[in-house]
């Protein structure tokens, strides 16, 4: 298996059904896209939780998508998702995905989040 195929297989793509499941929640929808210069999950978590505290609490659906030049480990992503889930309602659906993007600088991360059902 080539290195390219091996890395691509570690991606967790978000598909149409994922978007549909999140966007069909009734209520307001808010989306954000943020580029973080350094992949430091503690800082990213803190910033997102502070900036979107109310949206995280009220959302009925949250879609989270990470893009980076380097693979972000699933352990790192799981830590972020777990931290977000700790602050959601019990019935909130959280979907996440990852993708390699070689146009993003090394050690940077593009984070896209959609909150629905607000």
Automatic annotation (TrEMBL):
Matching Pfam families: FtsZ_C
GTP-binding is among the record's keywords: yes
Annotated keywords: GTP-binding, Nucleotide-binding
Domain of life where this protein originates: Bacteria
Any one GO MF annotation of this record: GTP binding
Domain Cell division protein FtsZ C-terminal: 55-106
UniProt keyword GTP-binding present: yes
The protein's name in its UniProt record: FtsZ domain-containing protein
Species this chain originates from: Arcobacter defluvii
Organism classification: Bacteria, Pseudomonadati, Campylobacterota, Epsilonproteobacteria, Campylobacterales
């Amino acid at each position: 298996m080539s290195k390219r195929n091996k890395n691509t297989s570690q991606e967790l793509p978000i598909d149409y059904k994922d978007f549909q499941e999140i966007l069909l929640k009734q209520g307001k929808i808010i989306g954000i896209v943020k580029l973080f210069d350094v992949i430091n999950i503690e800082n990213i978590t803190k910033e997102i939780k502070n900036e979107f505290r109310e949206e995280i609490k009220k959302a009925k659906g949250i879609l989270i998508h990470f893009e980076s030049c380097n693979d972000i480990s699933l352990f790192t992503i799981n830590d972020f998702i777990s931290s977000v889930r700790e602050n959601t309602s019990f019935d909130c659906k959280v979907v996440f995905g990852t993708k390699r993007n070689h146009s993003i600088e090394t050690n940077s991360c593009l984070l896209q989040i959609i909150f629905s059902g607000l």
